[in-house]
Fold HPP family protein.
Amino acid sequence: MGIKNERLRWQLASGVLRAFHLERLASRYSRRTVMAGFNLVNGGLSIALVSFIALITQEAFIFPSLGATAFILFYVPMAQPASPRNTLCGHLIGALMGLLALYLFGLQDAPSAFVSSVDLPRVGAAAVSLGLTSCLMVLLKVAHPPAGATALIVSLGLMPNPSQLPILMAGVLVLLVHAFLMNRLSGIPYPLWSSDAAGPALSLSPERP
């Protein structure tokens, strides 16, 4: 599985180089260097795009767990957790469970844990939000690890308003559109919705240089 993922990552990086007539870079530098550069450019570009939308609209389109999502989308694009289905559903579950935990512990109007001190209700909200998110992602077969961070972002009070949920999901969608375009441009058959890759887990095994 590790070798297969390595080949896909190389296909993704080299395919984009060919699309922009930069094939000489693939022959001049090692595979690891080319793939690292690919992730540097696309990871940064995808987050810059979402951040720019947040700047223009002054809405919370950008949030920390999108960084982990961006890495997965460009590093293991054909893994199930990187599919649009898992990415969208995972973040939605995480946000909803975070909101549910806030209401369960009466924290919907409380300042965030980063402004005030962490108390027992906040500990309970964080634990419940992550536990429920993990449970539901497994039951519904939509595992997406960064969604656990989304659950904590909401339950710790960084995005406590239900009206922020559509904006949060719009940020995820922008990231997915960018990943779809770049992956398809490189020749990777990135899915429109669900990946056919077997197994729910990411394979991030060490690769040869």
Notes: The chain has a mean pLDDT of 85. The chain has one domain: 2-185.
